[in-house]
Amino acid sequence: MFRQLQALKGMEVVALEEGRILGELHRAFLNTEKKKVSGITVHGSRFSGELGWVDVKDIVKVGEDVILVSRSAACRAKQPIGRSMQQMLGLQVATRAGKIIGLLVDLEVDEQWRVTEIVLSERRSVPVDKDAVFGQDAIILSADAASKVRRLARQRGLLARIFGRDAVDQAEDVISRVERSVAAPKVEQPQPPKKPASRAARTKASKKKARS
Predict the structure, then answer these.
(1) Judging by DSSP bridges, how do beta strands 3-4 and 12-15 pair with one another?
(2) How far is CA 87 from each of CA 3, 132, 154, 170, rounded to the nearest angstrom?
(3) With the C-alpha atoms ordered 125, 65, 60, 28, is the resulting torsion angle positive or negative?
């Protein structure tokens, strides 16, 4: 299983033991030190409107249409652990060589919920190395990470199904423009030349100088 976290948003969460629909995946949370998903929040249950927490160890299977958790009790009222995916969207991704390679759009995880790839704007991705740092304001990768950036094929995930491919492309283009504006050096606008003083002003200045 290699899945992008944003594509999981809105999927139904079902308790395997009771066959009960607990709600929909609201947000995924990341343990930034371990670079691994810590759990998910579930919202909009038909039994209660409360927001529940499911630890990643209680997730049995991520299927094509639903997410299976072990039992209903696995979804409980608890403070989420880690940093939400929504809080990380738009973070700068830079290398240890000091080069900005893009802005975070999504994260790809493996079967153990470890982050394996960072999805960048303009449908690109870059692998996550073992020494990657997921910081408060930026993600720092190895010095040679820029050479490992690859182009992604167009995907038709959940966001595209809901809003349409064109809308998703437009959103990606907005992020790309922001990315380019951040990376572009600021150019100072030339100042217009000063107009020469008028004859009357020069005469007035001369008289003032003579009096002094």
Answers:
(1) unpaired
(2) 19, 18, 25, 21
(3) positive
- For 3-84, which CATH superfamily applies? PRC-barrel domain (2.30.30.240)
Measure the CA–CA gap between 50 and 53, rounded to whole angstroms. Answer: 10
Distance of alpha carbon 205 from the chain centroid: 62
Task: Indicate the SS3 state at residue 206.
Answer: helix
Domain 86-183, CATH class in plain words: mainly beta
Which tens digit of pLDDT belongs to each residue from 189-203?
Answer: 666 666 665 666 666
Q: Give DSSP secondary structure letters for 90-158.
A: T-EEEETTS-EEEEEEEEEE-TT-BEEEEEETTTEEEEPPTT-EE-SSEEEE-TTGGGG-EEPPP---H
Residues ≥6 apart with Cβ < 8 Å to 76? 52, 53
3-state DSSP: the chain helix, strand, coil percent, rounded to 5? 25, 35, 40
Residue ranges per structural domain of the chain: 3-84, 86-183
**Structure-token pair, residue 164:** 């349409």
Same fold, 3-84 and 86-183: yes
What's the CA gap between 24 and 67, in Å, rounded?
A: 9
pLDDT tens-digit profile of 100-138?
Answer: 999 999 999 998 899 999 999 888 999 999 999 999 999
